[in-house]
User: Which sequence fits this backbone?
């Protein structure tokens, strides 16, 4: 068997790999190959090669490289040397390379990078001669020592510094600061060539002192050290934590990209930059980017210096006065604009590109699909279809369902905002609005959030170590960094409210103070952020839902609707909810909970009557109470059906155990006892009788209907009379009566007898021939899935209640999982909380069984899902796959359901 | 299509039907046909015909007979007339017939019978002439009027008398009593022919007065009235109630047998009797029966007169002085003995026969498989195999598993019994011993039992209306009736303690008094019954289990073992239970619950330590408590393994939610707080934190093991060290470690890691190479059945916990089903409580899935069931069918499981 190819070369208009090889070469490697080698592109990519992810996997299982890797790397290095005309380790014309990670899916900043590999005592003179820039060379060298000692010698070797300050990077920074202080310099740029040369010597001495090892002066040793460090960083703490959040499998591994260095810090005709082919913040089809003259790429990404705009469009308040690249280097800019349009045409998507200008020559260092926030994703999808760049199917896949959430994210109530003056302004890096208590470290953010507090993480800048804290916070505010800084990238990816580069603020970590021009805030004080405009406010401002008319979103969702097969209904318990859901695109109600009317405002009287019914001890007492309750129930149902006119409304009969409604307050108990003319003792006795050990599996749902048929009778009468009255008004009510907690056919038969009886009675009373109405059941008991064939002989529809099905299928009481499910997720026993996303393997199999069995005996069976999984994207895809007719979810999740339903269709087509 | 045959003739050595047609002809009809027509028998059966159960079903759906039935009946009647040489309605030589029910399965006394049909004003003189016995004829006539007016005119017509006294039967009895009083007669026999003739006139007048209808004087009208009444009685209250208890489907219907009358009340050369081919009370191969001279059959069954023994063997204290049939009519007796042996040889089973002697001629009226109690059933099965009458397979099916229960029923502690003098003596009609409070009506028995009281139903005699009360009582005591009376038959069928014909007692219903020679008891006072000896004692005597060595039972169970495939283990939590189970034939323990040691006597200290562990707030505290707990846990497990030496012992790790163990008593809380050096408030806070809404689905089982691995560690160490110590003693311990409440493979992996770690540690500590031990899981969570293929990759055995599987599969909290499951059963929504007998359709399907999935990935998987279904006969059969390896049940259920397992094999063979 032929040896597997481990190393892929690219450069000089050629490439071994291409874009389709992302799993093997990582995203970065595949795109470098594509940019370098594809006939439509052949962009000026510095030559290099990619070591495959398979090598990483091999390396992880034993910390050894596969046989033959060394030779392959040397061969590839030879090709690079040939293309670029320099030689690795050559004292006269030395080649320097970067060593970077590149996973299948981008993990920005989570793994290690070593630059300037190949600089040694021997090659330094040659490079000085070639570059004619001694300062640049020593600057590169001190960067190499710093990175290498930190990343390769300390981190990859597994040396744990005792504290932050004892880490080698900090110590070297200390050496550098001391030199600057000694010389009275404020900025790094003031360091002269001689200073830097001396600094390099001091660095190497420090490295030896702290790490008890020499900084290697052999280029090949440096190269292999770098490669090993990148592979090792795949299992570094930050990377593992990020993968857990993003759901990236540990087994994927990372590729390593070794690429010849080009330098943006060669002087004033050099620069480095990052750009997006369209605006990632709002989706506009405008070239958007930032650059820094005389700088290395990481200076832009790290957010240490605030970069300049590449063009007028990219200007912000912070850099309005800076010269644009378009003005400064018009030829280069024109070339870049040309590359931009070729890349978009080729990739048919917005690209995030990194470029370097070395002595007036433009190099493309990277291109990849650009991250974007929700509004931008939607806009780009809609625009690109209009531009005929992509098909509708492609467009639908371009928006992540969770990104839609951003469009529907809370924003600061504009009325409240008008009355306030912002205390600071930064770059709008993450959408929506948020308020919270100030914390100054990621660890505090995590801790406070666990205590149930809403926090805003405030940092000078963020780094990959902060991701968990950013996750835990409501929003992130940084004093430094641009739209492409770490904080901005991460927040945008998550759709989290974020403001970066807020230069007006100042943070004192030691005292835990946030200093703004007008006020100094202590830890724990409230601030509010407008992530859409980059504004910071004092205190808590009220929020509102972003439900305003959104033309582009509606266009996008319309596109989804034209593709999707699944119907989308809503869970709504009031006419108001029903109206809101219609605006969001619901075509009917999948779950109307009759018990809702006993909660919340306006429920005083009906709740009192319900309690009276519950505490009743005889059929006569109960029927009297039900009679009083009837008009309330009828009105609620009728008005909801009116709001949903023409669409189906699934009404679930009383579900919770009666004990839930028994009052605990003394005055309410007294009123109840008085109304029923019984003593307090008797009342308490009756209430006590209703108490259950495991109410979730107790006397509830259809079990109430069987033991108290009069309760079923009242509810069905309310539904059918409500419908009859609407019919008389000329409307088109379409109720579906749903029996909850059913596990056996005879339960349904029992309740259907009541249904038939009342149906006949109501027809007669209203002189009607027919009321359009279905009779069906919730499927939420595991046994119901098993005997669904029998249930479907009685039921005209099924609606899967996957919340309860998850509870009983797993034996997880939702109220009690706090004691163990967090441990389960953190130990990897469960991939996630099964109440968030449907457990497709276990509970999903029960659903599948239920559907297969049900359709066996009833081909016309209408099948849907209600409950929260109906608005969760992966669960919606599952519902599509198992051929449900519709999903139902809360009004705000409807757009997500519509998108996920469309994506399910497209994914299915793609597979065929 | 040919018309279905509706009427089957039998008589004169011929028969249209035979024994195999029980479904169509009912048990009685099929056996009459068999007795009359089979070449080996051709017994003297009075000719007659059977109307099929299909006609009954037709009749029930619309109260009409199928077309052509009338003609068929007339044709069959003609054949009867031809055989017997009499004519129906013939004034000179009239034929009289009986009209009786006969269902597929015997329902003694539950349906109606009309005798002497065909007696009219016209036929009376002819019969007088033919019988030369005017008194007999009028006696027959008054019986016909009484029965017919009651059964046909009142009951079948659906007339509801206002109270018991206003019923026509009571009124006619009143008329008769008045006549007797007027004439100063004490017994019915004193009534002369003239009296009876007059009585008949008065009866007819009364009937007209009360029911507003004439008693019919047309023989055909009488016949159809009788047939209709029998069919109608299939849906009578008593029959429906009996069918519910016995599980007889409503759809079966009854046949109607019309048979020429023969008379046991023709004078002193006439008699009637009932006999069993073997003793139904103990199984001895002796002819056993009772008879009455000059009486009709119902006089024996009704228990109104105490009958005489047919032979010396059948004598009891009550009838020791009566002349036996053997002595009185030796020729007839010899003939009967001949019939007895022919019937047993033919049917290969004990037969219950009814015979009548009319003027010195023996007629066989009925034969059917005789009911017997448990001990008798076992003995007959064993004997008949020895006699080569039946095969072992047949023998195994001859004992109903619930009958074995009787053999294991409590009896009065002989020591206690020795010290007491019986206050009364009757016939030992139902096995075992029982004590309870006296009640005097079936209704009271039901009511008191519902209140949780143990009652003894004391009646003059019982009738079919009493069955529910008999069911509810611990035992039944009647003053009248013989071993074939209603009370005796029913109690024997159920294996319920019962004494009948206790003539020394007297009951005053009005005052609710039980009067015995030595003492008068009020309602509610305690008595104790010895159903094996027929003795009644004052007060509560202590009971004991009937666990004494039982040779015949052991022979029988040995037969079962030679046939069964399923293994039988026991659920045992102590060495004592283990020893007892071994005696009962268990081959291992299927469920040892570690938590048991924290309940009951001797548990004070371990429970305290467990509580200490539970209330611990840190790993260190918890580990300290676990260390103290360790020796107790190890000792318990070790000694149980010692008792079960050589057999497997499945040990389930801690299962219940920890909160269950938190004490409620103040002094215990104080002691605990003191031990832990925490405040009361703190203790209560910690206890409160453990509280759950639905503990059944909360933090329990493996979930505890995952969150507190130290608890698992301690338990596994206790098991393996216990085993290691036994190995060192030269014993053969075989533990199986069972993880409870598992629903996901990763839970098992997590716990198996601990298992492996401790296993290695213990081997090392004891210098052992191997400890025989399996690692497996309980399957009790619905999801576990779905993902069983994955679980079986880790588990070496599955044990189905069908209690919890039923709870979660149905969503029925066992503690809370009291609110609705009784309604479910009474409304027919569920056939029975699924915790009693496994719900094969739903929960069974989950079990089936679990087994199929599990064996898919692990062919060597050991599969069993623990929990109460493992000792329930139908569930055991299910376990056999789904190919489990063993069942496990409580020690006392083991014989039942062994029998049920053998029956499952035989049933399977029979089907093939």
Assistant:
């Amino acid at each position: 068997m032929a040896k597997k190819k481990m190393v892929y070369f690219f450069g000089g208009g050629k490439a071994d790999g291409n874009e389709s090889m992302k799993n093997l070469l990582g995203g970065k490697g595949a795109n470098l190959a594509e940019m370098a080698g594809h006939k439509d592109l052949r962009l000026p990519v510095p030559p290099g090669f990619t070591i495959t992810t398979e090598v990483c996997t091999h390396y992880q299982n034993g910390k050894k490289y596969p046989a033959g890797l060394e030779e392959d790397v040397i061969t590839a290095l030879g090709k690079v040397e040939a293309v670029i005309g320099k030689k690795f380790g050559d004292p006269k014309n030395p080649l320097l390379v970067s060593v970077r990670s590149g996973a299948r899916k981008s993990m920005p900043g989570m793994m290690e990078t070593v630059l300037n590999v190949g600089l040694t005592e021997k090659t330094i003179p040659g490079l000085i001669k070639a570059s004619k820039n001694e300062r640049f060379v020593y600057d590169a060298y001190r960067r190499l020592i710093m990175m290498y000692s930190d990343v390769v010698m300390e981190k990859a070797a597994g040396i744990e510094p005792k504290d932050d300050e004892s880490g080698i990077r900090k110590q070297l920074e200390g050496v550098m600061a001391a030199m600057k202080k000694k010389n009275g310099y404020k900025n790094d740029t003031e360091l002269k060539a001689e200073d830097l040369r001396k600094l390099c010597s001091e660095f190497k001495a420090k490295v030896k002192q702290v790490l008890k090892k020499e900084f290697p002066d052999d280029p090949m040793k440096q190269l292999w050290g770098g490669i090993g460090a990148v592979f090792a960083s795949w299992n570094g703490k930050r990377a593992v934590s990020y993968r857990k959040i993003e759901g990236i499998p540990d087994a994927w591994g990372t590729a390593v990209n070794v690429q010849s260095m080009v330098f943006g810090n060669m002087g004033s005709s050099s620069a480095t930059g990052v750009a997006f082919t369209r605006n990632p913040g709002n989706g506009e089809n405008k070239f958007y980017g930032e650059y820094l003259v005389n700088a290395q790429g990481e200076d832009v990404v790290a957010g240490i210096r605030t970069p300049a705009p590449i063009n007028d469009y990219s200007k912000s308040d912070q850099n309005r006065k800076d010269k644009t690249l378009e003005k400064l280097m018009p030829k280069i800019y024109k070339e870049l604009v040309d590359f931009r349009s070729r890349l978009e045409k080729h990739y048919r998507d917005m690209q995030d590109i990194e470029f370097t200008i070395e002595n007036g020559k433009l190099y493309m260092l990277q291109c990849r699909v650009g991250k974007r926030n929700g509004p931008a994703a939607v806009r780009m999808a809609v625009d690109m279809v209009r531009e005929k760049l992509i098909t509708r199917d492609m467009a639908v896949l371009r928006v992540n369902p969770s990104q839609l959430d951003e469009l529907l994210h809370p924003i600061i109530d504009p009325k409240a905002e008008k009355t306030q003056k912002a205390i600071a302004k930064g770059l709008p890096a993450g959408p929506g609005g948020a308020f919270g208590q100030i914390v100054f470290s990621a660890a505090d953010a995590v801790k406070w959030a666990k205590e149930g507090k809403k926090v805003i993480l405030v940092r000078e800048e963020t780094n990959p170590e902060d991701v968990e804290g950013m996750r835990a916070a409501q929003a992130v505010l940084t004093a430094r960094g641009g739209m492409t800084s770490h904080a901005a990238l991460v927040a945008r990816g998550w759709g989290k409210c974020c403001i970066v580069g807020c230069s007006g603020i100042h943070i004192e970590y030691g005292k835990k103070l946030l200093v703004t021009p007008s006020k100094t805030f202590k830890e724990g004080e409230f601030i509010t952020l407008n992530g859409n405009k980059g504004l910071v406010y004092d205190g808590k401002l009220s929020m509102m839902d972003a439900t305003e008319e959104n033309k582009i979103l509606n266009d996008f969702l319309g596109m989804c609707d034209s593709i999707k097969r699944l119907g989308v209904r809503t869970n709504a318990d009031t006419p108001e909810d029903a109206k809101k859901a219609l605006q969001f695109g619901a075509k009917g109600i999948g779950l109307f909970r009759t018990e809702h009317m006993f909660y919340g405002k306006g429920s005083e009287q009906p709740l009192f009557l319900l309690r009276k019914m519950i505490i009743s001890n005889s059929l006569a007492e109960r029927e009297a109470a039900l009679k009083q309750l009837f008009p309330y129930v009828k009105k609620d149902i009728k008005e909801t059906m009116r709001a949903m006119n023409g669409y189906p409304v699934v009404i679930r009969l009383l579900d919770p155990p009666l004990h839930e409604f028994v009052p605990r307050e003394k005055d309410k108990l007294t009123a109840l006892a008085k109304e029923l003319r019984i003593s307090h003792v008797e009342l308490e006795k009756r209430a006590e009788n209703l108490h259950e050990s495991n109410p979730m599996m107790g006397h509830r749902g259809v079990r109430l209907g069987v033991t108290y048929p009069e309760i079923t009778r009242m509810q069905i009468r309310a539904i059918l009379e409500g419908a009859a009255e609407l019919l008389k008004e000329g409307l088109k009510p379409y109720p579906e009566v749903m029996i909850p907690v059913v596990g056996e056919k005879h339960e349904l038969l029992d309740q259907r007898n009541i249904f038939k009886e009342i149906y006949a009675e109501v027809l007669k009373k209203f002189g009607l021939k027919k009321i359009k109405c279905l009779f069906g059941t919730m499927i939420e008991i595991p046994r119901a899935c098993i005997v669904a064939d029998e249930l479907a002989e009685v039921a005209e529809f099924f609606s899967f209640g996957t919340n309860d099905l998850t509870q009983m299928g797993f034996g997880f009481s939702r109220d009690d999982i706090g004691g163990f499910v967090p441990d389960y997720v953190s130990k990897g026993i469960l991939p996630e909380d099964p109440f968030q996303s449907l457990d497709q393997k276990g509970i999903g199999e029960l659903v599948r069984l239920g559907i297969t069995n049900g359709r066996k005996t009833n081909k016309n069976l209408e099948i849907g899902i209600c409950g929260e999984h109906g608005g969760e994207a992966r669960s919606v895809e599952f519902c599509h796959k198992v051929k449900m007719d519709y999903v139902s979810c809360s009004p705000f999740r409807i757009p997500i359901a519509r998108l996920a339903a469309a994506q399910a269709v497209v994914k299915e087509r793609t597979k065929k």
